[in-house]
Amino acid sequence: MVQRLLEFEPTIIGRNGKWLKDQMEEQGLDLDDVHAALREHGLSRVEQMKLAVLEEDGSISIVPAAGEDTPQARRRRRRYKRSAF
To answer: For residue 20, is it within any domain?
Structure first.
């Protein structure tokens, strides 16, 4: 049971060019974190993003919108650990 409490599910934090601010706040992310993830995935504007996911390991995955020419997807590690409580 304790292990289950410490395991985290991926969380969608952005969709269709917009950040889901309630989810970002719940996960302890700010605009600096997510904009850095966009840049690391070769995007310059949030409108170029189809989907953004905070992964179980704390990285942020970005799926570009159709037609966006970006380098191979990379993941960004968060600067801090998630609290279990």
So the answer is: yes
The pTM of the full predicted model, rounded to 2 decimals, is: 0.72
Residue 15 lies in a domain: yes
What total of structural domains would you count in the chain?
1
Find the domain containing 10 and state its range: 2-77
Long-range contacts of 15-23 (CB under 8 A, 24+ apart): 15/50, 15/51, 15/52, 16/50, 16/51, 16/65, 17/46, 17/47, 17/48, 17/49, 17/50, 17/65, 18/46, 19/46, 19/52, 23/54
From first to last of its 85 residues, what are the pLDDT tens digits of the chain? 555 555 678 999 999 999 999 999 999 999 999 999 999 999 999 999 999 999 999 999 999 998 766 554 444 555 545 555 4
